[in-house]
Specification:
- The chain has eight helices and 15 strands.
- By secondary structure, the chain is an alpha/beta fold.
- The N and C termini lie far apart (56 Å).
């Protein structure tokens, strides 16, 4: 049985989530709950839970700030949030789980199962550390992303990604160290996650890091030569947008 703490300023949300956990997640027991971040810190440090269900948007101290203030973060985090583009993107980049209010039972069960599986390792929660590192980093070029791999997660600086290529429902990352990573997610998902001021969708099959473009070859759509000498097509409908971006440089 895993112990869980709920930190959420809305009592209805806490009560609803606690009831769903009790009914649909028998492996988890809610051992405490808090309506604010300060008390949440005290409870987490005293009770040392396995899982923390953490509301992102709370007054005075939001969920991210609460995590930063903790001296130890040896637990799994499942974020609870209303729709907030920045918060959700930051969470996704770190490959962490989040649930949107009102919480769907199927999504709750899936997030809890992932947390249970991750508790089989004694390592610190590197995904939480990555999230906090990215939140404290003002320079988007220095962000890191957690890329799912066959044996876990690959933590990668986005500055090392040359381009991404679609392969059916998979995405292939081409990195500066000449490595390739194949991920079971679509290119569209990474288009939404990666900073748009750095990564450009030039084709239905390609997203490129503009910092690695070596040359543009004119044509109907044209082609780009990347710094690893790979030549990629630019779709005709994306040509004008592509040239506009580089005209600003």
């Amino acid at each position: 049985m895993l112990g869980a703490i709920i930190v959420d300023d809305e009592s209805n949300s806490r009560n609803g989530l606690k009831e769903k956990i009790s009914r649909y997640c028998p492996e988890v027991q809610v051992i405490a709950e808090s309506e604010n971040g300060e008390n949440g810190i005290r409870l987490i440090e005293a009770l040392k839970p396995d899982i923390v269900f953490l509301d992102v948007e709370m007054p005075k101290m939001n969920g991210f700030t609460m995590l930063q203030k903790l001296t130890s973060r040896h637990f799994e985090v499942i974020f609870i949030t209303g729709y907030d583009h920045y918060a959700i993107n930051a969470i996704k980049v770190s490959a962490l789980d989040y649930l949107v209010k009102p919480v769907e039972i199927s999504e709750l069960k899936e997030a809890v199962l992932k947390a249970i599986n991750k508790r089989t390792t004694a390592k610190k929660n590197e995904q939480v550390e990555l999230l906090l590192q990215n939140l404290l980093n003002d320079k988007k070029e220095q962000l890191r992303i957690a890329i799912p791999s066959t044996d876990g997660l690959q933590f990668t600086d986005i500055s090392s990604i040359i381009y991404l290529e679609a392969s059916s429902n998979y995405t292939i990352f081409f990195l500066t160290n000449k490595k390739k990573l194949t991920v079971g997610r679509t290119l569209k998902e990474y288009e939404e996650l990666l900073p748009e001021n750095i990564f450009i969708r030039i084709h239905h099959s390609y997203i490129i890091n503009k910092n690695f473009v070596q040359k543009y070859i004119r044509g109907e759509g044209g082609q780009v030569v990347m710094q690893n000498n790979v030549v990629l097509d630019v779709a005709k409908r994306r040509k004008a947008e592509f040239l506009k971006i580089f005209a600003k440089k």
